[in-house]
């Protein structure tokens, strides 16, 4: 219910009502005098005119009196022509007393006072907040004479929060999302990761559209306007709950170079992804993508980094990857790949290749003969068993080689040599190896060597001459003797030997330097003299 205040009568209408009232009062006084004079007697006095007691259609001033009770003020009744329901009028009761003398000045002053009071009440009610429906109804039903006249009107939309459905597609305000969008407009980097998004927010899709509710300010000191927004070059929507990518997103990231969508629930990608001609880095790890996704991704020739780890890729790796001739980093770890064959032949610029955590049973150097620029190769946690080196080949830049947690029994045969002049880290832990002599001969810059959990009974002599070694782990093998030559490896800072049948009394609990000292103490005198001759005592 709505409360509609009635407009206060104008000054001209008030003057006309005063004149009409002055004419009416003498007739009323004459009738009252005749009634008193003939009280208790039959009289032939004619009835008073019918319009004497008629409730006036406009407010009347109250006739003041010092000795008698003033006449009741007629209630205000709006005109029926306005389509407003009338409030019940108050019945006029005439006391049988002498009518007071009419004083025009006092009557006019009282009317003005009443009008001023009504105006004050109207202004007071306008300053108050809107009342609740029940309070509004109580105000309308009040019979106080000083209240501003009001009426009840049925409001069909009063109980509906959004009667015209204007907020149907309006997203709820998220201060974190809003702040990310504002930053992206200025620096071109959209970072909305870890926001539990199930779809791309509409605020992101429309982030470059000018808001019609905002006034465009062309002044020099104003905040950045829509025509000054930066193009997006970096988009991070990782760690959310997305199941698909809205096609509309591609429309606003035409200049993007990096997209990070890892750790979502994506099972497919939009075809419009091919429109991103400047895309170089794509991270799709931790999703639900299958091998078929490569049919789309391999049509992005500008890619230099691709991460498809922890998805559902299976079978033989598609040879279509050869189309990505600009690729320098490829991560296919933690999938279900069974073989790579020669699928990477065209990826001649590949530097980092991660194939760990798959079902590979075979990985041979000949399959990577075109990737001589490799810097890092990780094929750990597979089922590789045959010889890795099936041809003579040199990887001049290979620095890290991780073949741990496989079933490798030998790395190469006697007829083939793998040259790794820049190899610094070699991890062969948890295999079935018994010798690594040949590979150590071609790795003169080795720093970290881990052969833990194999079947070594002796250590190669080449190991003791690698003065660049700093970390050596030979634990959990079948060594019955720990060679004392290890005690003379000057740069060795960490050495682990536990889990072997060798007995080294008094060495348990010692740090690396303590163990090296113990081993030197067991060395023959000739070895000590020879090691001393090799020391440089010059400043």
From TrEMBL:
InterPro entries: Leu-rich_rpt, Leu-rich_rpt_typical-subtyp, LRR_dom_sf, LRR_domain-containing. Gene3D superfamilies: Ribonuclease Inhibitor (3.80.10.10). Keywords: Leucine-rich repeat, Repeat. Residues 1-13, 55-70, 128-142 have a biased composition (Low complexity). GO terms for cellular component: cytoplasm. Residues 32-47 have a biased composition (Polar residues). Residues 1-88, 120-153 are annotated as: Disordered. This is Leucine-rich repeat-containing protein 40.
